[in-house]
Design brief:
It is a multi-pass membrane protein. This is ABC transporter domain-containing protein. 48% of the residues lie in helices and 16% in strands. The protein is built from 31 helices and 28 strands. The strands form 8 sheets. A 6-stranded mixed β-sheet has the order 6-7-8-3-9-10, with helices on both faces. Strands 16-19-20-13-21-22 form a 6-stranded mixed β-sheet, sandwiched between helices. Strands 2-1-4-5 form a 4-stranded antiparallel β-sheet, covered by helices on one side.
């Protein structure tokens, strides 16, 4: 090997070195795989220590152990001279370690500022998060405009990485781990990040830099440690190794020819011809690919090259002419593109390339089902044979084909995607960043596969942000600027400097492929829109009721509507708590009935003070017990929230029927009068509901607990990654829900007057509808207690208005179902309005 002239250092830390990060003798085994084998690594204060290796070498696993998110089977972790004896993200962060992960740990429904806030080791005020986050974002990427109040789901990948970097730097870390931090950054921001890293190291921070971009490693690192097959293969001074030597150490063998030989240019047959293609963000693009050629697309992100590629794949509408092997290919439909032989290798493999929860075999074969099925029936043996062949051809490293593909390294996931696409035997391959986040060895394999298919007559088009990759792999490269091809290079002119120069000089301003929506669109996608829209609905219903019968505005009628709203509002608050975490609670309705039944034994005329006190205590204890049971079934038992709370629903209803087979036991008249007290025509219970809604709304939006609760619902994995105990917050949500449902039983008592097991059953659907109408996401992470109260008021109005316009009571259910469907659909659409693509 050419690296034999470089001598590795002893990686064992000395006492003078351990103030930064030290891992000694770390081993970690997963089912069927020894991920780390007795690895020792240390990063000293003031140095940048690069950790390099192929995908699956163990780099991210080692740093996950350092960050406390993964427990080693053996070995020790020291951060700032303190032993991380009980690994946890919170403990590692408290000791001064911050990590920028390969996949940003950001909750999509939270704002950028909120995501940054919840990752901090010390509490901060959520209401001041914007002012605190703004300068940190500018420092992390000062030429990319990012509003701290924008929700993460509206960001492009580059912006998400800038937020992830800013979040880590905000912790003022003593140890900073960067795992592939530049994969989605363009040149200007890469240069800025590297400068910031050098500045942090100069100030005494120990920096661990993980990257497959060897030129960046050599430019920034003081020392380099190589991992291969889960073992440390040596630590070297960065200045002692050439780029080729680093590549050879990573691969464990010389890789003298990263790029395969190019086409000799003798073929004249055109396999793909595009003429005058127009679409969103690109216009009048022509492209030809001859047999044996690979054609590249370059340009600053957002200048139309990705939109052009996706239009060719049928993912977005376009107009123009496309022919494949001389036959016209239809546009605008993925199905039509596939029939024409056009196959797309997506750039975002985790979202579009794989189904992470499915096994490797299914992911390898899912795009070519027709080859191993007959009359729509799957042929398992043929499927397994194809999966084995594909896995062997692409050298996919997996314990077995039955493990979830999401457990594989990024490079092996990329091989699965590419193999799955190529198994369709396409005539055209459209590859979007085919080597993003993969090591040099895997890159070389992918290049060879693409070249082999090109030589066999398949048209290959590659989009890449790496100019070196394009110049080394492609026969011709088109550089995009503002939606048009600004320059084309081939032959001797096809060089990295020429491509880079055209990218820089063709346009002076980066144009995002996502544009800001109108003010109306932004408002509709925001937190206050449901409040305004439901408020308008309430006014319109009131006008309809008044038009039908002027008595609608009488104090008696309005007081009755508000009383019913208070009951529904309280249980809706509880439902909102659980839905914020991504769950649902079907047991709230029989719980309300059970409370009424229980209190019909204790809160009756003639009951002693002791009995009454026990009755009130029993109400709270019942709520706590039911909420804890629901949480245990969901979090500890692993049941889905629907199944778990449905089981509780049936159990609670059974208990109520055992205690009161028929209605009986009259609630104290004095207590009913107290609960029914009004100020003017407004029930006190409604005033309590309004005050409680305001308090809960403030806690949700302006406190650390509220932000973390929403983070758990938006992305539990991201929440765990930043040290949030998702189990704790779901426990809080389920117990809070049941307690609020139990409290909703109090005004229900005044309306029913006796122990009736069926008293609360109508509140199950209506509580869900009130929350959904009020703007909550059924998937978690977003909602409003004020919205839930307004939703409850709207539904209570519906009941009254249908009576005044003399509609059958069945219409109440029709309208309830319609309101639920419309609100959920409107919410989903409003999220799309935040960004125009």
């Amino acid at each position: 090997m050419t690296s034999s002239t470089s001598t590795p250092h002893d990686p064992s830390p000395t006492s003078a070195d351990t103030a930064g990060l030290s891992l000694v003798g770390v081993s970690k085994r997963f089912p069927g795989v020894l991920a780390l084998d007795d690895v020792t690594f240390e990063a000293r204060p003031g140095e940048i220590h690069a950790l390099v290796g192929e995908n699956g070498a163990g780099k991210s696993t080692l740093m996950a152990i350092a960050a406390g998110s993964l427990r080693a089977d053996s070995g020790a972790v020291m951060i700032s001279d303190v032993d991380l004896a009980r690994p946890s993200v919170k403990a590692a962060r408290a000791l001064g370690l911050a990590i920028v992960r390969q996949h940003p740990a950001l909750a999509a429904d939270l704002s950028i500022a909120e995501n940054m806030l919840i990752a901090q080791p010390t509490p901060g005020a959520a209401r001041r998060a914007r002012a605190w986050a703004e300068p940190l974002l500018r420092a992390a990427g000062n030429d990319v405009r990012i509003e701290p109040t924008a929700r993460v789901e509206t960001l492009v990948p580059e912006q998400r990485f800038i937020v992830e970097i800013a979040k880590a730097l905000a912790q003022k870390p003593k140890v900073l781990v960067l795992d592939e931090p530049t994969e989605h950054l363009r040149a200007a921001n890469v240069a800025g990040l590297l400068a910031r890293i050098r500045s942090l190291a100069a100030d005494g921070t120990a920096v661990v830099y993980i990257s497959h971009r060897i030129h960046e490693v050599r430019a920034v690192a003081d020392r380099i440690t190589v991992l291969r097959d889960g073992r440390a293969r040596g630590t070297f001074d960065a200045g002692d190794l050439s780029e080729q030597e680093i590549v050879n150490l990573i691969a464990g063998r010389p890789l003298d020819a990263i790029f395969p030989a190019k086409s000799d240019g003798t073929e004249s047959r055109v396999t793909l011809e595009v003429t005058g293609l127009c679409g969103a963000h690109f216009d009048d693009v022509d492209l030809r690919v001859r047999k044996g050629e690979i054609v590249g697309l370059a340009g600053i992100e957002g200048n139309g090259q990705r939109a052009f590629l996706r239009a060719l794949a049928g993912l977005t509408p376009a107009s123009g002419s496309v022919t494949v092997d001389g036959a016209a290919a239809p546009l605008g439909s993925v199905r039509d593109s596939l029939r024409a032989g056009v196959a797309y290798v997506p750039g975002d493999r985790s979202q579009e390339g794989i189904i992470a929860g499915y096994d490797v075999r299914t992911n390898l074969t899912m795009r070519s089902r027709g080859d191993h099925s007959r009359y729509g029936v799957l042929l398992p043996r043929r499927e397994r044979d194809q999966a084995r062949c594909s896995s062997a051809e692409f050298k996919v490293k997996a314990p077995s084909l039955d493990v979830a593909v999401g457990t594989l390294s990024g490079g092996n996931q990329q091989k699965v995607v590419l193999s799955s696409v190529l198994a369709t035997k396409p005539k055209v391959i459209l590859a979007d960043e085919p080597t993003q986040g993969v090591d040099v060895g895997t890159r070389s394999e992918i290049y060879r596969h693409l070249r082999r298919y090109a030589e066999a007559g398949t048209a290959v088009v590659v989009l890449s942000s790496d100019s070196l990759e394009l110049s080394g792999l492609c026969d011709r490269v088109h550089v995009f600027s503002r939606g048009k091809v600004a320059a084309t290079y081939e032959g001797a002119d096809l060089t990295e400097p020429n491509i880079a120069r055209s990218i820089v000089t063709a346009t002076t301003e980066r144009v995002s492929h996502r544009t800001r929506a109108s003010r109306l669109g932004q408002w509709l996608a925001g937190h206050t829109a449901p409040l305004g829209l439901v408020g308008i609905g309430i006014v319109l219903l009131g006008l309809l009721g008044t038009y039908a019968d002027p008595r609608y505005l009488s104090a008696v009628n309005l007081g009755g509507i508000l009383a019913l709203t208070a009951t529904l509002g309280l249980v809706a608050f509880g439902q909102q708590l659980v839905m914020l975490t991504g769950g649902i609670d079907l047991s709230v309705a029989p719980l309300m009935g059970l409370v009424v039944v229980l209190e019909s034994f204790y809160l009756v005329d003639g009951a002693t003070a002791t009995d009454q006190a026990f009755g009130w205590l029993l109400l709270l204890l019942t709520g706590v017990a039911v909420g804890t049971l629901n949480w245990a079934l969901v979090d500890l038992g692993g049941l889905s929230p629907v199944i778990a709370t449905l089981a509780t629903y049936m159990a609670l209803q059974a208990v109520s029927l055992i205690l009161r087979p028929v209605p009986g036991g009259f609630i104290s008249g004095q207590l009913i009068d107290t609960i029914s007290t009004r100020v003017g025509f407004i029930p006190v219970t409604f005033i309590v509901a309004v005050v409680l809604a305001l308090i809960l709304e403030a806690l949700l939006l302006w406190t650390r607990t509220g932000v973390r609760l929403r983070a758990v619902g938006s992305d539990p994995e991201a929440a765990r990654t930043v040290g949030i105990s998702d189990k704790k917050y779901r426990l809080l949500a389920y117990v809070g829900c049941s307690v609020l449902a139990a409290l909703a039983g109090i005004p229900l008592m005044s309306q029913i007057g006796s122990g009736d097991a069926s008293a609360g059953l109508t509140y199950m659907l209506s509580s869900i509808a009130a929350v959904a109408v009020g703007g909550a996401s059924i998937f978690g992470g977003r909602g409003s207690f004020l919205g839930a109260l307004l939703g409850a008021l709207l539904l209570s109005q519906v009941n009254a208005v249908t009576a005044f316009v003399q509609l059958d009571t069945a219409w109440n259910w029709y309208i309830l179902g319609g309101a639920l469907l419309i609100s959920v659909a409107a919410y989903s659409k409003s999220r799309d309005l935040a960004v125009v693509t």
